[in-house]
Amino acid sequence: MKPPKSGSILRILRYICISCVIVLGFISIIGSGGGGGDDAAAPGVVPGIGTVPVINDVVLTDENFNPKAEFAIGDTANFMVTATDPNRNMEELIVEQYFPSDTTGNPFYGPDVLMLPSQSKDTMTYMLSAGQL
Amino acid sequence: MPYRAAWLFILMKRNLKAFVCMINIRQVLIGLTVLLLGTLVYLIDRSPDQTYFVHKSFVNISLHNTLPNLFGFIGNSLPSFIHVFSFILITAGLLCCQKRGYITICAFWFLTDIAFELGQKFKIFSLEIIPDWFSGILFLENSKKYFLLGTFDLNDLIAIVFGTILAYFALSITIKRRET
Predict the structure, then answer these.
(1) How do strand A123-128 and strand A78-84 relate by DSSP bridges?
(2) pLDDT for A82-95, tens place per residue?
(3) What is the mean pLDDT of residues A30-48?
(4) A30–chain B nearest CA distance, Å
(5) Which of B19, B28, B41, B169 is most exposed by smallest CB count within 10 Å?
(6) Cβ–Cβ of A50/B124 closer than 8 Å?
(7) Rounded to an integer, what distance in angstroms lies between the CA atom of residue A45 and that of residue A36?
(8) How many helices (H) and strands (E) in chain A?
(9) Average pLDDT, integer, range A6-21
(10) B interface residues, A as partner, C-beta within 8 Å
(11) Which residues in chain A are closer than 8 Å to B112, comparing Cβ atoms?
């Protein structure tokens, strides 16, 4: 058996290098984006339906949309909801109201549905008025 | 023993020389240099949480908030340009082919990059074709997140087109003519 010629070894080496470059090219695309952040931040996917929206933040505000934690009887409460849906098809928000002191878990109001304006970005902040309920 | 080592060294040196003759070293070096420049976007301009490679690295290699932003708004689409440009040059340099081969290589990387960008627009389709076993493999585990959390941008598509054209131009200038 003859030993392989130096030229053929080099040719094999070249093809190995090219294969590595192609694999690296694909990996570099996948690894360059998407973020490596918290796994919980990635919305789930339901086959045939799309991405499941994730509510990132809810802030209670006064009627001028300034954050406020405590309300007296008769005060108007609005709220801001930040939610992510890469599928961009969030349409409605289901709202329930609870008394903080209530331990029964029963809402004193709701569930009610708020229609959301059309989604123009993956993550949206909705400023919602209590008057919409 | 020293003779054997010297002989091996000469053989390796000769093979390396022959290997360098088989490739277009200029194209490979240009590709690698530009690729290195592209990594600066991820290290300096982008938050480490946005990039799988930076986030997963064992040591903190991110210079985000340590150095001022280098690329400004160009940094948004620069990686798309750099990826297609540098990988065309590296592949073509290793294959050391002629103009017809260059067109094939340009088309291959152009279509690859366009497919990944469009995959971010049609997220659901992309997510459905990614097999579940990818989630257990290093690097591939990020593929779902790449499509799910990545943003489709028309400027990225333009950058890919521009990168491909410029890469073909660069290949044409640095072509290694075959001796007849």
Answers:
(1) antiparallel
(2) 888 877 888 888 88
(3) 59
(4) 6
(5) B169
(6) yes
(7) 18
(8) 1, 7
(9) 84
(10) 14-15, 18-19, 22-23, 42, 48-56, 79, 83, 87, 90-91, 94-95, 109, 112-113, 116, 120, 123-124, 127-128, 139-140, 142-151
(11) 25-26, 29
